[in-house]
Amino acid sequence: MNDDGAPAHVTGRIRERTFSLADLPDVREFAAAEARRRGMAEGALDDFLVALNEVATNAVTHGSTKARLRMRVDGGQLVVTVHDDGRDWRPDTEPGVTPPPHNATSGMGLWVARLLAADIRVTTGQDGTNVTMRFLL
Fold first, then answer.
1. Could you tell me which CATH number the domain at 9-122 has?
2. pLDDT tens for the chain, residues 1 to 137
3. What are the Histidine kinase/HSP90-like ATPase domain coordinates in residue numbering (predicted)?
4. Cα–Cα 20 to 30 A to 78, which of 45, 100, 114, 119?
């Protein structure tokens, strides 16, 4: 269900869900069920959910109050895109490539997601920010 109580939107083979900060537990549950349905092994699920949670949390705490999760399969990979409407973020370098300092208490989300995903791409512009992650199935 979406945060308004409606079923998650299905467009062909793409599953989509809009969420806010309060919806993060439901988003993780939705994503886990969808990943299993798409063939992700149980042993890979924990890493997938950690990466997803980091990116989804960033979207609704730093980007905009509402964000969108889209999931689809491309070949043998689960492709997950988290979109937020935040337009003010203009990173100087590729986000999440450099490890955070040893004493960091925040700012690790994209770095952690990059470690756990097979691939990650971050795009930002006038339409907001997209973080697209790929996970092997």
1. 3.30.565.10
2. 444 343 444 444 889 999 999 999 999 999 999 999 999 999 999 999 999 999 999 999 999 999 999 999 998 999 999 999 987 777 777 877 888 888 877 778 999 999 999 999 999 989 999 999 999 99
3. 21-135
4. 100
